[in-house]
From TrEMBL:
Top EC class for this record: transferase
Substrates-to-products reaction catalysed: 2 GTP = 3',3'-c-di-GMP + 2 diphosphate
Gene3D superfamilies in the record: 3.30.70.270
InterPro entries xref list: Diguanylate_Cyclase, GGDEF_dom, Nucleotide_cyclase, Rev_trsase/Diguanyl_cyclase
Transferase keyword on record: no
Protein name: diguanylate cyclase
EC identifiers of the protein: 2.7.7.65
Pfam family, one: GGDEF
């Protein structure tokens, strides 16, 4: 059981691990509190703690199964906010110290600015209740220490999200052409397979590569070759719909995943790209052409099988004289 949990968390994102950890630790933290409330016969707090336990368990299970991740994160954030307000206003003075871990956790549930706004709102909401129970010096100390804690985690969370976004882009983006890379392609292709198996959503793959690219590199140099790759990427991007995505799969080979489309739609896109390349000659670059292979995703087909059929069609275009479009 623990092995499966570790495997699932290792496969998930950083945010998945944070949400699961917060939900699991919150569940464990609330359990003894629930027992204490029962012993004290504080039935309002018993009800509140029981609801929190159910929600924390629900969120942890869903994260483990990879379902409703965004919803689980927001639900966890909302219940943590309600839990902080409820335990601080209805419980004894010691419950006020739950504001520290609570404020830290919500920065992982929401964007930094939203989390900061929530922290301010909660602080203002609970102040009248704490004012009645805390000595003035203790209340001042509480808020004086909460302020730097919230500000620190705000800037830390903001920086962490920026770094995570940068790393995610580097992991899924081709540096030269600014298109998706092979890893991003595999992820998107798997999503297409899942969509087809669940809802019969039609998706089409267009593979294309540069004709005689090695000859072009040898004649003009690798710098010019790189410029040609960037040029064709820009032309292709201008021919795609907002739902289509371009990927550089390696060397001079590219792939386009055409979502929710038929073979005729993909054929039209390939023809548009071919025509655009012919009509947009760059006087600073050597002339070039590309060859295409098109394959519609079939039921129970793997990413490798889908690519293999498109690649065979691409090879057929090469055999037919290049600068051609073939359909698997």
């Amino acid at each position: 059981m623990l092995g499966k949990i570790r495997e699932r968390l290792r496969a998930g994102t950083l945010l998945d691990r944070v949400v699961f950890t917060v939900a699991a630790l919150s569940f464990l933290a609330v359990c003894p509190m629930l027992v204490a409330r029962i012993i004290e016969r504080n039935w309002f707090m018993v009800t509140l703690d029981a609801i929190l336990l159910v929600m924390f368990a629900f969120i942890a299970v869903n994260v483990m199964r990879g379902r409703y991740l965004d919803v689980s994160r927001r639900i966890l954030g909302v219940f943590m906010v309600l839990g902080m307000i409820g335990t601080t206003t209805m419980g004894d003075t010691g419950n006020a110290y739950w504001l520290y871990p609570g404020f830290i956790a919500i920065f992982f549930m929401f964007s930094p600015i939203v989390a900061l706004s929530i922290a301010v709102l909660v602080s203002v909401t609970v102040f009248p209740f704490l004012y009645e129970r805390f000595a003035a010096t203790n209340l001042f100390t509480l808020y004086a220490t909460l302020l730097p804690t919230v500000l620190f985690i705000y800037f830390f969370s903001k920086d962490l999200r920026a770094q995570h976004k940068t790393l995610s882009m580097q992991a899924t983006e081709d540096y030269l052409t600014q298109t998706g890379n092979r890893r991003a392609f595999n992820d998107e292709a798997q999503l297409c397979i899942d969509a087809l198996n669940k809802s019969n959503a039609s998706n089409v793959l267009i593979l294309f590569d540069m004709d005689h690219f090695k000859r072009l590199n040898d004649a003009h140099g690798h710098v010019t070759g790189d410029s040609v790759l960037k040029d064709v990427s820009n032309i292709v991007q201008g021919c795609l719909r907002s739902t289509d995505k371009l990927y550089r799969l390696g060397g001079e080979e590219f792939g386009i995943i055409v979502r929710h489309a038929l073979l005729s739609d993909a054929l039209g896109i390939a023809q548009k790209i071919r025509q655009s390349i012919d009509n947009n000659k760059n006087e600073h670059l050597p002339d070039y052409t590309v060859s295409f292979g098109i394959a519609e995703l079939l039921k129970n087909e793997s990413v490798e099988d889908w690519m293999s059929r498109a690649d065979k069609a691409l090879y057929q275009s090469k055999q037919n004289g290049r600068d051609q479009i073939s359909i698997a």
